[in-house]
Amino acid sequence: MSFDRLAPHYRWMECVLAGNKLQRCRTAFLSQVKNARNILILGEGNGRFLVECRYGLGEARITCVDASARMLQLARDRLSARRLSPSGISFVHADALTWDPPRETFDLVVTHFFLDCFQPDQLAQLLARVSAASCASATLLIADFQVPQTPFQRYRARIIHWSMYAFFRMFTRLPAQRLTDPDPFLELHGYVLRDRRVTDWGLLRSDLWQRGAV
After folding, report:
1. Is residue 55 assigned to a domain?
2. Residue 1 placed within a domain
3. Which of 114, 99, 84 is nearest to 22 (CA)?
């Protein structure tokens, strides 16, 4: 799976298809993690969240992992365009499924519109790695698509999901063919859902999970 081919077009595609909806989902809980000091961002893409993270958490160390070298370069360019220093940010060009992160290091892990890329067995593997890399009280921020509950909203979402997966499988060799709910995997590793905001007729959600929360 690689988003290199889409990297130059991803920003305008997102703007045309979703406006600012996805970015609002990405930043929904950013104000609630001001104390984060060691952040892991998986599948960051072209750096829209990274910039906001840098504005809000300027003293934190950030590890930004993406399988697309072009996306990582766009993220660097976005920081430069806004005159934000890359100091303290590590850009890692790697497949998140095979990358070996340091253990028990990160107090904040971020995955925005990324977990939907994986099949269930891959998602289980990925979240096991995330758990191993997280400290005991780590926070996890997730923004992603979901399947709504009401019939009309569910029907609308399924059409959007089908179109989305067909497109990305064609251009990125996306392994997933449908959305897998990550909640059971997160709960297995001791994460507790602290807050969830659902928008766009139930299509989008932003989550704040806490590890070790009671």
Report:
1. yes
2. no
3. 114
